[in-house]
Amino acid sequence: MSRGEVIYLVWNDLVGLSRTRGVPIGEYERRKAHGLGWALAGQAMTPFEDIAENPWGPMDEVRQIPDEETRRRVLLRPEHPALHLVLCDSLNPDGSPWECCTRSFLAAALADMKAETGLDLHVAYENEFALFGEDIRWAAPFSLDAARRIAPFADLCVAALIDAGAGIETFEPEYGVGQFEITCGPAAGLAGADRVVLTREVVHEAARQSGLRSTFSPKPAPDAVGNGCHLHVSFLDADGKAAAYDADAPGELSTVAASFVAGVQRHVAALCAVTAPSPISYLRLGPHHWSCGYDIVGVQNREAAIRICPSPAAEPADRGDAFNIEFRFTDATASPYLAIGAIVRAGLQGIRDGLPRPDLVEGEPDDLSGDEREARGIGRLPTSLDEALDAFEADESVKSWFTPTMVQAYTALKRHEIRLYAESRAERMCERYVQVY
Ligand code: GLU
Ligand code: MG
C-alpha cells in the first residue's frame, strides 16, 4: 500500500452525486471520529458548476462522518491506485443528523416503517448504464457479441464489484448501443442504498481504468435508449418471512403490501420529482420505452410505474422468497437515499390510512380509449420535471416528509436545472448529464 493512498469520504447529495473530500491513509484513524467539514451551501450545488439559491450563504458547516461499515478498498489493477472510499452521514456538530442529510433521511423513514409495522424493507436495484469509447459501436441488442466486445471491462468490473461486496448477481448487454445492466441482490434498507452508490462508483472506476467512459444518465442522447434504475422492494417480518406475499391475494400482494403500493401510487406524480429528478429524466419516462408512462400497477407489466414481480418458483411455499415490487419511475439522477426514503414515506402513509388494494392493469394503457382510462383512474406520469415539481410543491403530504429547509433547497436546485434545460438544446443537456452521472 502506498503512503500516498487517499481514503475518500463520500456523501451522496440532493442531486444524487457522490461528492467527496479525501484523507491520506495515515491520517484516517485520527480523523474518522469527527470526519471532515463541508459548507452547508455545498448541498445547493447543482450537477454542474453552479450553486443554486439557498438559505445558507457562507455560514456554517456539517461534519461528514464516515460509517466504517461502508468502508471499501478495491484494487482493480495492481499498477493503479486502489479505490478506497467510505460513505458518510452529514451530521450537525452535536452529532445529530443534519436536516438535509440524504442518508439520514432514508434511515429515519426505515426506522418509522419498522416501528409502526414491524417490517424490514429489503431493496435491490437494476443498474442500467452506457459505455463510450472508440470501440463501442452498435451490436445486436442483448447479444453475446455485445457482451464479449467489452469482456476485459466486464471482468475488471465484476471482480471489483465482488470485492466491494456490492452483491452483484448479473451482468448483461442491454438494448442500446454500448448499454449494459448490472443487477445487485437485495440488502436490508440502508445497505441496499449504499450498494447502489458503491456500484455506480465501481463501474465508473472500472471504465476509467479500461479507457472507457460510463454513464448512468437516464438519456445519454435524446434518441438513445434510456437507462433505468428500477428499484425492487420486499418486506420481511420479525421471523424473516416474506410479508409482501400472499398466495391467495390478487397479484399475490399481501394486504399490507397492497396498502403500501396504493400509498405510492397516490403520490406518484409528486414522487417523480424525487425519483426521476432531472429535466432529461422525462425523455426516458413515457409509454413504449419499457420504462413506464402511466401511474398504474400491474403484475409483470413493464408499462406500469409499479410492477409486481412474481417469484419464478413453482412451489407455493417458495413463492414468497423472490416475490417483490418494482418501482420503475426511478433513475440514477436521483439520490437512492431520497428516492427510497420518499417511496417508503408514501407507502407507510398508505398503510396507516389502510388504503384499498390498487386496480391491477394488464397490457398497454394506450390500447384503452381515453374514456376507459378515465373510468379506471389511469393517468399519465408527469411529462416534464416542471410538471413533477409542480405536483411536489402542491402535495402537502409529500412535502411534510422533508424539512422545510430541504424542500426549499431541493426545489431551488431543480428549478435551476429546469432553467438550464430550457435555455439549451436537448442534445447538449444530455451530453452535460453524461459528463456527471
Ligand atoms: N431501459 C428501460 C428503462 O429505461 C428498462 C428496460 C428493462 O426493463 O430492462 O427503464
Ligand atoms: Mg434492463
Structure report:
β1 (6-12) and β2 (18-24) form a beta hairpin. It is globular and about 65 Å long. The strands form 2 sheets. Strands 7, 8, 9, 10, 11, 12, 13, 14 and 15 form a 9-stranded mixed sheet that branches. Strands 1, 2, 3, 4, 5 and 6 form a 6-stranded mixed sheet that branches. α11 runs antiparallel to α13. The longest helix is centred in the middle third of the chain and has 20 residues, at 189-208. It contains 14 helices and 15 strands. The chain has helices at residues 28-31, 102-117, 144-149, 151-163, 189-208, 255-266, 268-275, 281-284, 336-352, 370-375, 385-394, 396-400, 404-423, 426-436, and strands at 6-12, 18-24, 36-39, 61-66, 72-74, 83-91, 120-132, 168-173, 179-184, 187-188, 213-215, 231-236, 294-299, 304-309, 324-327. By secondary structure, the chain is an alpha+beta fold. It binds glutamic acid (GLU) and magnesium ion. Glutamic acid binds next to loops.
